[in-house]
Amino acid sequence: MIASVTGRVDHVGLDACVLSTGGIGYRVQATPGTLAGLRAGAEASLATTLVVREDSMTLFGFANAEERDVFDTLLTVSGVGPRLALAMLAVHSPDELRSAVAIEDLKALTRVPGIGQKGARRIVLELGDRLGPAADGTTAAVPAAAEGGRTDVVAALIGLGWAAKQAESAVDAVLAEEDTSVTGDTGAVLRASLLRLGGGVRG
């Protein structure tokens, strides 16, 4: 993994920059806020993460390691890819995202282009407290007990477009598995249920 890149700024575009170091120019995707702090010809250092796909390798850059770590965590949510995770950090600071998830502020999350009510609900459920506490000490609610978590996950799946019977069957199957390590974690149960249903979003 390329954790950071330090070098001369050769170019600053609308959604990416080029940093040159050791005779190599690295094209780095970044948020408008990060790019605004760069100047062509000046030295700069960005925290980075390399996203590898079957047909591409893309380097994403951030003003600091905190933004990079939040980006990496966002990528673990079903349906959130690098572009959407970057858009979330373009609209909200890491601490704003922590607060939004902790208090389940769906309205704040839907201000990000590409995130609707269903997506915001899924993000809140899957992230839980994995982003850590906000600066004001706000933390996500403690995961519900198995039965309460079951109700929440079934409701979330129905909200994502699955039929009630399909949702209930998938959740019950996950909770009935011998590996019960996820049963007290609503986000983990949701992820496992989505995988069992095929990972898609209906409607």
TrEMBL record:
Cellular localisation: Cytoplasm
Listed SUPFAM superfamilies: DNA helicase RuvA subunit, C-terminal domain, Nucleic acid-binding proteins, RuvA domain 2-like
Alphabetical keyword list: Cytoplasm, DNA damage, DNA recombination, DNA repair, DNA-binding
Keyword DNA repair: yes
Keyword Cytoplasm annotated: yes
SMART domains, sorted: HhH1 (SM00278)
GO terms (BP aspect): DNA recombination; DNA repair
A Pfam family hit: RuvA_C
Domain Helix-hairpin-helix DNA-binding motif class: 72-91, 107-126
Coiled coil: none
HAMAP family for the chain: DNA_HJ_migration_RuvA
Assigned protein family: Belongs to the RuvA family.
Recorded domain comment: Has three domains with a flexible linker between the domains II and III and assumes an 'L' shape. Domain III is highly mobile and contacts RuvB.
Assembly, per entry: Homotetramer. Forms an RuvA(8)-RuvB(12)-Holliday junction (HJ) complex. HJ DNA is sandwiched between 2 RuvA tetramers; dsDNA enters through RuvA and exits via RuvB. An RuvB hexamer assembles on each DNA strand where it exits the tetramer. Each RuvB hexamer is contacted by two RuvA subunits (via domain III) on 2 adjacent RuvB subunits; this complex drives branch migration. In the full resolvosome a probable DNA-RuvA(4)-RuvB(12)-RuvC(2) complex forms which resolves the HJ.
Protein name stated in the entry: Holliday junction branch migration complex subunit RuvA
Organism: Ruania alkalisoli
